[in-house]
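Appendix B, example 12.
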Amino acid sequence: MLEIQSLDASYGNVQVLKGLDLRVGAGEIVTLIGANGAGKSTTLKCVSGLLRARSGVIRYQGEEIQNLPTHEVIQRGLVTIMEGRRLFPDLDVLENLRLGAYHCRSAREVARRMDRVFTLFPDLKGREKQLAASFSGGQQQMIAIGRGLMAEPKLLMMDEPTLGLSPLMTQKVAAIIKAIQQDGITILLIEQNANMALRLASRGYVLETGKIVMEGPGMALLANDTIRRAYLGI
């Protein structure tokens, strides 16, 4: 569904990605793990069109998209939930969610998507007019994920969805990610909680200083001694 080949990316003169290769098959959860500064978020920015790669190819459903603007990438069904949630704090839940469906012109379709979000996140039901800023971090993450789902993604890219959350809320988010996959949406997951990410993932990639250094089934990587020492503290 998504294929990245020989991707190079830089910020000014600082090269961040160095010949990155990655693929995501339809229906998979694929995770990309690595230390801070390894290039994980940069990878998502290149795929989503927020950052132009220096070289390399990004194919989505067989079509090259590395030169498309972000709004066209989203309209093709490839949606990103950014690190830090990026909500509009002075807008209420409904307003934040509706922004995820900004390109949808059918009120009936928007309502259907909204119902789907509230079914997935019952904690938000009945609080639709409450300002986003008044929610806890975990509830704000639910709104952010819901806004992404309002765009009707085929492939959902998630950047650090459990960052700063309690262990209990982290478990809830993990269950939500699995439920989204079971609903037919492919997921590319960037996550510093390597234990959670590799348990969820069909396959995983390990990124170090802009290069993929290891890949394989999620549970196989979880059992790898190098991964356990570097990312699990075991």
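The chain is about 35% helix and 25% strand. Residues 27 and 184 are 6 Å apart (CA to CA).
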